[in-house]
Amino acid sequence: MKPRYLTCHVYLAFARKSFQKQMQYRVANLAGLTTNFFFLLVQIFVYTAFYAARPGPQPLNLNDIITYFVLCQSFLMLMPLWGTRSEIANAIKDGSVALQLTKPVDFQTYWFADELGKACYYLLMRALPTFLLSSLFFKVTIPQQPASLMAFAVSMTLAIFMSTSITITVYGTAFWTLDATGIVGIAHSIITFFSGMLVPLALWPGWLAQIGGWLPFEGLVNIPFSIYLGKITGFAILMAIGKQLIWSVFFCAIGRIILNLGFSRLVIQGG
Asked: Which residues fall within 8 angstroms of residue 103, CB to CB, at 6 or more apart?
């Protein structure tokens, strides 16, 4: 038990250091809050105009849409996929990954711990302020059932875990390309679209929504937010969370394979 305890203590220390590092950028965080709120206003204005032009019944009412995009902007930075955090690719490109590999820790778990610290920071300094500020200006839906909030918390945690797993997998391609900008850009566009970040899957045409439902990416946005809005209930919640869990484990395993293959062929430029 002692070695396991010490191992957990080490990774928690990495997470704490990551959190403390982010605390240094208070002005940048304030600018980020302003940016989040600006884009939230744009999204709400666009969908308000859309609903005014289409007064008929919709799968999501206007209050649901407003709440959906408030959640999007609140939790955006908790997920490294959209947080523009490319330390992995940069470490591979500039060779500093060699220094990290000298640490007696598992590299993949180290990055998970690092992202955990950042996620905790953005939860406190970005998600909660954005949500509370938005609640002052817009009618944001709050689930009345504690079970729904607990299911949302579990689903959102899995979404962050999956986002981190996908990020490590995508940026790990830098072992072969050195500059993963192109691959990251393509992956970012595909995942942003099929996750429901731009348009909720409930508003998609039936055939396209079916395709999106078969892909893993709705687990990043559409599933947790649909649980929050009460659009996924009962046994369907367990099915949705199970889907997130399976895909999270899958991407974690793929990331592990990519990192192991990458380390076996790693050549540091300049020496």
From this structure: 110
> Over the stretch 134-187, which tens digit does the pLDDT of each residue have?
999 888 988 888 888 999 999 999 999 999 899 888 888 877 776 777 888 888
* H or E stretch at 182: helix 181-195
Cβ(111)–Cβ(168) below 8 Å: yes
Answer with the residue of higher pLDDT: 70 or 18: 70
pLDDT tens column, 244-256: 999 999 999 999 9
HSE-CB of 60 using CA atoms within 13 angstroms: 26
Residue 66 region by backbone torsions, left for phi larger than 0, else alpha for psi between -120 and 50, else beta = alpha
Q: Would you tell me the crossing angle of helices 181-195 and 146-171 to the nearest 10 degrees?
A: 160
- φ/ψ (deg, to 5) at 253: -65, -45
Q: How many CA atoms, within 13 angstroms, populate the side-chain half-sphere of residue 130? A: 30
Tens of pLDDT, residues 78-137: 887 765 556 676 777 666 777 767 777 788 888 888 888 888 999 998 899 999 999 998
Sort 38 into a burial class: Cβ within 10 Å, 0-12 / 13-18 / 19+: exposed
Neighbours of 92 (CB within 10 A): 26
Distance (Å, whole) CA 267 – CA 131: 45
Characterise 88 by phi-psi region: left (phi > 0), alpha (psi -120 to 50), beta (else).
alpha
DSSP character for 201?
A: G
Instruction: Read off the DSSP letter of residue 217.
Output: G
Instruction: Give residues with Cβ within 8 angstroms of 109, minimum separation 6.
Output: 11
What is the rounded distance in angstroms from the CA atom of residue 118 to the CA atom of residue 244?
A: 21
